[in-house]
Amino acid sequence: MYRRPIHRTIANSRAETPPAMAPCRLLNQGRRLVIGIGARRYCRSMRLITDIRTVVFCSLLAWMIAGCDQDVLYATSFTEVATERTKLIDGIESYQSMDDAKRRFQQWAVIEESRLAPGDKRPPFSIYVVAIENYSHLGYSGKLHLTFFNNRLAEARFYPSSIEKYVERLQEHDKLTFTSTDKRAGSPEARVAPHTRIRIYNQPPLDLQGQNRSIGWGDERLEKEETLWIERYS
Question: Is the pLDDT of residue 27 over 60?
Answer without folding.
Answer: no
